[in-house]
Amino acid sequence: MNDLDQLVAAAQADFARAATPADLENAKARYLGKSGQVTDLLKGMAALSPEEKKTRGAEINQTKQRVEALLTERRAALADAELQAQLKAEALDVTLPGRSRSQGGLHPVSRTLERIEAIFGSMGFDVADGPEIEEDWFNFTALNTPADHPARSMHDTFYVDTKAPDGSGHLLRTHTSPMQVRYAVQHVKKHAAALAAGEAIPEIRVIAPGRTYRVDSDATHSPMFHQCEGLWIGENVSFKDLKAVFADFFRNFFETDDLDIRFRPSFFPFTEPSAEVDIAFASGPLKGRWLEVAGSGQVHPNVVRNFGLDPERYIGFAFGMGPDRLTMLRYGVNDLRLFFDGDLRFLSQFK
Ligand code: PHE
């Protein structure tokens, strides 16, 4: 090994010993600095003959390049080591499970409403939606319940301090029955030309689910509760159809044929005759108990007239059922208020 090779080997060992970039710069100075070994060799060339300068000069230059290459290599290695150390120190464990947000679910009553809509939808019923702050006219008067009618007292509710266009008041609707009138009036308007020409118009077949309000609060009554109205009007719609619709609906809703339905005579100002609808399960914890699930009846001629239809020609039935009660029965819940407390311990059981 000649002196130049030895110098290169020494530089390599020196650079390898340098553990930090600062150490390495110090080691570099010993070779390539102002009075470094390579620099000294270059200076020494002044004393050489032109012949020697050529060969020795080339060798020294080569040596310089080799030392520089070793330096660059070691610099890169140190920088890389530093980066690796930093990455290791700041490591993130991306495999840790995240903090997931707990997933919500549909409210049990919303589930019931969806079921009701799906089942009636399959029977050709439209689904309608209307205001919860209702006009006195739609909630009572148009439903054959004039201002002095005693039936109004059964529907004590929350009155609002504003006046409807007809001068009557507003109130939180006490039932979904006003939707019978709102929907039928729209339907009649849509078919006004056919009606005027004395032609038959398409049947009205609609349900209207939504929130309703009454001054009432105990385990089975809440001041805010749900109803689902139903209305089927045509030229030849009878109580027989109402019975068939209910039989279909309840057997579908509760997913059982082991279910009896009975109609109990009752009174509503807007239907005549009227009936309460009860169901009884043939098995299960409620076996044999009659449970009231809806009010119903043949739509009163005065109401058909308020729809804008001739009661001599158009006839049909209406019903109003309680989705909250249906939900209690379906899931075995015994206190209605649980649905509206917003307690997640209760609600999350329905996810
Ligand atoms: N609106 C009645 C109630 O709230 C129920 C009902 C609707 C009865 C339609 C007959 C026809 O009690």
From TrEMBL:
Catalytic reaction list: tRNA(Phe) + L-phenylalanine + ATP = L-phenylalanyl-tRNA(Phe) + AMP + diphosphate + H(+)
SUPFAM superfamilies referenced in this protein's UniProt entry, alphabetically: Class II aaRS and biotin synthetases, tRNA-binding arm
Note on cofactor: Binds 2 magnesium ions per tetramer.
Residues at which Mg(2+) binds: 272
InterPro entries reported for this sequence: aa-tRNA-synth_II, aa-tRNA-synth_II/BPL/LPL, Phe-tRNA-synth_IIc_asu, Phe-tRNA_ligase_II_N, Phe_tRNA_ligase_alpha1_bac, Phenylalanyl-tRNA_Synthase, tRNA-bd_arm
Keywords tagged on the record: Aminoacyl-tRNA synthetase, ATP-binding, Cytoplasm, Ligase, Magnesium, Metal-binding, Nucleotide-binding, Protein biosynthesis
Assigned protein family: Belongs to the class-II aminoacyl-tRNA synthetase family. Phe-tRNA synthetase alpha subunit type 1 subfamily.
UniProt cross-references to HAMAP family, sorted A to Z: Phe_tRNA_synth_alpha1 (MF_00281)
This protein's name: Phenylalanine--tRNA ligase alpha subunit
Organism whose genome encodes this protein: Ideonella margarita
